[in-house]
Structure formats: structure tokens, C-alpha cells
Specification:
The chain contains six helices and seven strands; from the N terminus they run ααβαβαβαβαβββ. The chain is α/β, with parallel strands linked by helices and about 200 residues long. It has one domain: Rossmann fold (3-Layer(aba) Sandwich), CATH 3.40.50.150. Strands 3-2-1-4-5-6-7 form a seven-stranded mixed β-sheet, with helices on both faces. Helix 1 runs antiparallel to helix 3 and helix 2 packs parallel to helix 3. The chain binds S-adenosylmethionine (SAM). S-adenosylmethionine binds next to strand 2.
Amino acid sequence: MRDLDQALEGRLADLCDEGAELAARFDEDVRSKQWHPFLPANYRVVLQALVARRAPDVRFLEWGSATGVITIMADLLGYEAYGIELDADLVDVARELALRNESKALFAAGSFLPASYRWKPDGGDGRMGTIGEGASGYDELGHDLNEFDVVFGFPWDGEIDMMLDLFRQHGRADARLLVNMTNDGVHEYRDGERHA
Ligand SMILES: C[S@@+](CC[C@H](N)C(=O)[O-])C[C@H]1O[C@@H](n2cnc3c(N)ncnc32)[C@H](O)[C@@H]1O
């Protein structure tokens, strides 16, 4: 991959493979028995988006970090990387994966919704879809949402408007929101607008 030294490229490729194995195991052990909102993004596509945007002193947050693969990739690429995940068992998996990969990525068990946030769309239907409720994870991370330069989320269908609204209300105006689209790569938003 452009701009990456071979050793790092190898570590990232191994991490993507291990992430795919963890997701397959999760499907078998958990999702085959009951519905769960964890579906993995296409790690290699997200990796390209992170490589293209890496720079010194960039603080990164993954909303709903699941097994931690994307947050750990960001850390290995030099971002100051954090993840928030509601399912505490997945947070344990992410922390173990970070240890195995000698990563400094930090994870909080909790919600990526700040405590004061309410979703009030124009149409009035403020149901949250698959996004669950829980104590906000920002205190544990020691950073508010407006202290992150790059935020990544993988919404289920119909949930992107809520993510954009949350970012408009609580993100910093010059920060970037990267949204993984199921069949259309990663879209970048800044100040409410989509950027190419
Ligand atoms: C579609 S999955 C994406 C997982 C991961 N970002 C990836 O791309 O591989 C969404 C994740 O968000 C988590 N989640 C749902 N509601 C949440 C909330 N309010 N706060 C934090 N995580 C949440 C789910 O448990 C799930 O792991």
C-alpha cells in the first residue's frame, strides 16, 4: 500500500485477517443464537481511508468499536486512537486484541452518545434503531466528542442521519466524520457537508 513500510503493512494485513476470524467466531457463538448489532466493516477499505488521512497529532474515535480492529489499525498508523463500545464483552475482546498487537489503543465500555444528546429528527420519529442505550463512554476516555479530529462510525440502514446530527451537535466544526457505507466505501463529512 502507498506510503506504508512493509513491516507495518504486514502487521495491518494480519490484523485484518484476525479481525475477520474474530467476526466469524462471533457470528457462530453469538449472532447465530440471538440478534446482535455487531457487523464488521470492510477492514481493508477502512484501512485505505485511514492511511489517506493520517497525520501527526490526530485524535481518532471509533463509535461502536466492537472487536477493536479499526481503532487498533488507527493506533498502528500513528493516530491517538480510542474506541467506545456498548457491549462490555466486545470491549474485553478489543483490549486483548490490542495487547496481542502491541497497540496503545484505548477502549471504553459505554455509549458513544453524550449524556445530554437527544435525537429529534424533523419527522418526529426519534427511535434509535440498533443504537443501544447506556452510560456515556466519554468520561472513561477522558475526552469529550469535540476533542476528536477524526470520528469513524458504521451505521445500520437508516441510522446515518442520527450520526450526522450527533456530530453536528457535539463534534468540532473542523473535525471529520468518516462513515462506512455498506456498499459504497467510506464517506467523509465535515461541518455537515459530504466531502469527496
Ligand atoms: C455495525 S457494528 C460496527 C462495528 C465496528 N465499528 C466495525 O466496523 O467493525 C456497530 C457496533 O456498535 C455497537 N453499539 C450500538 N449502540 C452503541 C452505543 N450507543 N454506544 C456504543 N456502541 C454501540 C454495537 O454493539 C456494535 O458493536
